Amino acid sequence: MMKRPRVALLAALLCLWGCGKKGAILPPLVRVPNPPEILSLLQRGAHIILEWANPSTYADGRPLPGVARVEVWRADAGPEGAAFESRASILAVVRRSEFPRFRIDEGMPPGTMRLSLALGSDLSAGRALVFGLRAVDTEQRKSPFSALRGVRPKPLPLPPLGLKADIGPDAVTLYWEPSRENIDGSPAVEPAGFRVFRAEGDGPLRPLTVSLVGETTYHDREFTFGRTYRYVVRAVVAAEEPPVESDDSPVLEVTPRDIFPPAPPAGLTTLPGEDFISLVWDPGIEKDLAGYRVWRREEGSGDFRLLNTDLLSETSFIDRAVEKGKRYEYAISAEDRAGNRSRLSDGVFDSLRTTRS
Fold first, then answer.
1. Between β-strands 244-245 and 229-238, what pairing exists: parallel, antiparallel or unpaired?
2. Are 194 and 212 in contact (CB under 8 A)?
3. What average pLDDT score do residues 232-257 get?
4. Calpha distance 282→261 (Å, rounded)
5. I want to staple 176 with a disulfide (CB 3.0 to 4.6 A). Which of 76, 113, 123, 160 is the partner?
6. Any idea which fold 37-151 has?
7. Which residues pair with 348 in a beta bridge?
8. Where are the domains of the chain?
9. % residues pLDDT > 90 (the chain)
């Protein structure tokens, strides 16, 4: 009769003994950010252009609230297997407050950054450079290094010189001269061509052509009067992808102003009636043509007098303020939307038609 309580008591004691047993002490889990991803590393003139994407997660896959800074490390190329950190040094630090200045959003993954690094004394013949990035979160936890990328700088040409512009009615024409010297002082090689870039206002620079420009002149016909543009030109040594090219030329800022009048209207013809004289002429071909004005003077008199205060959009006009027995000379002028007025067209003489009795 006493066996069941004893069995229950023994089971309870065994349970308590098992629950109190201690296992091995595990270290706390340290959460570290994933490393940045280097998207592009190339030389442009006397600079290294580095593009990367900041991490958005920790190594365990959890979201990364924010990157406090990104460290850019650089080392000379070393033997395979040599530890990068032991022979590298920090070249630059990009802090979170500076991210907006280096962020490039158009056509790139979110969070992509671009940094231009001056080569300086790193431009030595045959010297190869290796770059790695490391992200640090707001708790000062550091990521592993990114996949390393290397580049071997070359003595590329200095930027093109003397960029200037002429403004015409149909194009902004750019002129420049190629540099005769490389960034290391040696004679420059003949460029394969040039790339021309333009930005509108404070916007990003964009190439104006897909193919290289073979001359030291370029006609930009896709512009609007009154808008401000910034132009730069690069000399291209090798037309590969990405192109091997110089740094940007000094920026040329241009705000084209429309000071170019339309051509005088042509083909003016008159058709007299009994109490009016009708005029017709050929339409102008200017894209910004706003309208026409009609001018008249009596034969043998002085200056022309304007007949219409409002611009005509049509290429015809009927003059009813005419008198019999007088002969009139007519001319037409054209105006554009900027208010530029053409010269007068060739004059045409006419008078009212005489009624036969």
1. antiparallel
2. yes
3. 92
4. 17
5. 160
6. Immunoglobulin-like (2.60.40)
7. 330
8. 37-151, 161-254, 269-351
9. 74
Check if the beta carbon of residue 196 is closer than 8 Å to that of residue 207. yes
Q: What is the pLDDT of residues 42-55, one digit of tens each?
A: 999 999 999 999 99
Query: Looking at this protein, which amino acid is placed at residue 227?
Result: R
Q: How close are the terminal C-alpha atoms of the chain, in Å?
A: 155
As a CATH number, domain 161-254 is 2.60.40.10
Q: Which residue has the tokens 């070249």?
A: 91
Is the fold of 37-151 the same as that of 161-254?
A: yes
d(CA 38, CA 56): 14
The residue written with tokens 């800022």 in the block is 253
> Checking phi first, is residue 267 left (phi over 0); if not, alpha (psi -120 to 50) or beta?
left
In 3-state terms, what secondary structure has residue 335? strand
Residue 24, pLDDT score: 62
> Residues 133, 73: contact at Cβ < 8 Å?
yes
Residue 159 CA to residue 250 CA, distance in Å, equals: 8
Contact predicate 92/132, CB 8 Å: no
Please give the average per-residue pLDDT across 62-73, as a whole number: 95
pLDDT at 308 over 80: yes
Q: Which residue has the higher pLDDT, 87 or 172?
A: 172
- What percentage of the chain carries pLDDT values higher than 70? 88
| 258 contacts 288 by C-beta, under 8 angstroms | yes
Residues 6+ apart with CB under 8 A from 145: 35, 73, 84, 85, 132, 133, 134
CB neighbour list of residue 70: distance below 8 Å, 6 or more residues apart:
36, 52, 54, 93, 94, 113, 133, 134, 135, 136
Rounded CA gap, 125 and 129, in Å?
Answer: 12
- What fold is seen in the domain 269-351? Immunoglobulin-like (2.60.40)
For residue 345 the two structure tokens come to 């067209």
Its pTM stands at 0.77
Kindly tell me if the per-residue pLDDT of 16 is higher than 60: no
Q: Rounded to whole angstroms, how far apart are CA atoms 268 and 348?
A: 7
